[in-house]
Specification:
four-stranded antiparallel β-sheet, 235 residues, 9 helices, Rhomboid-like fold, alpha+beta, globular
Length: 235
């Protein structure tokens, strides 16, 4: 299922934070494309991606992290992607759902929310894959938090969705809650079934980062969402 357009109601503000994040991701991906060799690209991922053993065992895998500070990779990894499909899918979900979450939270809160979800997603990945020396990259952990926030803020919204059923191509409007919950269930099942496996990912996807980001989003949106105005008393 590929979301094409959502219908949550009118937006009040311009989503400049979401669009800036999206633009930085695209610029970073263009930088990856001009590196010129797979070796240079792998070196970038090893330096700026989240490598669990660098946190759990203090081992340095490949080039040093940005400014020699390993914890910065929890942020830098959020702006790197492993291919066109990877960044396209992430940015599509951010574009469809992020503007309305930013509109409801406000620009600064949305920025803080996004990075907190991404950082917690990275930490979750480290805990679930403590012995891995494979770099993890991508914005999907932070975007999972955005999906969780959207679920809480717009439970009745609908999404125009592209669906492939064999030879049929459908574009129905479906409940955003169904789309998001279905996505989370697939991630959770993949995460549970990958526990104890000899690899740190499920099909090349860091599913525990998605799960951690989503749960972080559910919690943080409760803490950061605007409170409803108290009803005034008439005298």
């Amino acid at each position: 299922m590929i979301p094409l357009k959502d219908y949550p109601g009118p937006r009040r503000t311009f989503p400049w934070v979401m669009l800036t994040i999206l633009a930085v991701n695209i610029i970073a991906f263009l930088f990856e494309l001009v590196l010129g060799s797979e070796q240079q690209l792998n070196s970038l991922f090893a330096a700026a991606g989240v490598v669990p053993v660098e946190y759990t065992r203090g081992l340095l895998i490949g080039p040093p992290p940005p400014f020699g500070i390993v914890y910065l990779t929890l942020i830098t990894s959020m702006f790197l992607h492993g291919g066109l499909l990877h960044i396209a899918s992430n940015m599509l979900y951010l574009f469809i759902f992020g503007d309305n979450v930013e509109d409801r939270l406000g620009h600064l809160k949305f920025l803080i929310f996004y990075f907190l979800c991404g950082i917690i997603a990275g930490i979750t990945h480290i805990i679930a894959n403590a012995g891995s020396d494979t770099p993890s990259i991508g914005a999907s952990g932070a975007i999972a938090g955005v999906l969780a926030a959207y679920l809480r803020l717009f439970p009745n919204a609908q999404v125009r969705t592209l669906i492939f059923i064999g030879p049929l191509i459908l574009v129905p409007r479906i409940a955003a809650a169904f789309l998001i919950v279905f996505w989370f269930i697939t991630q959770f099942v993949s995460g549970v079934t990958s526990l104890g496996a000899p690899t740190d990912t499920s099909g090349g996807v860091a599913v525990w980062a998605h799960i951690g980001g989503f749960i972080a989003g559910l919690i943080l949106i409760q803490l950061m969402r605007p409170r409803a105005a108290e009803p005034s008393l008439a005298y």
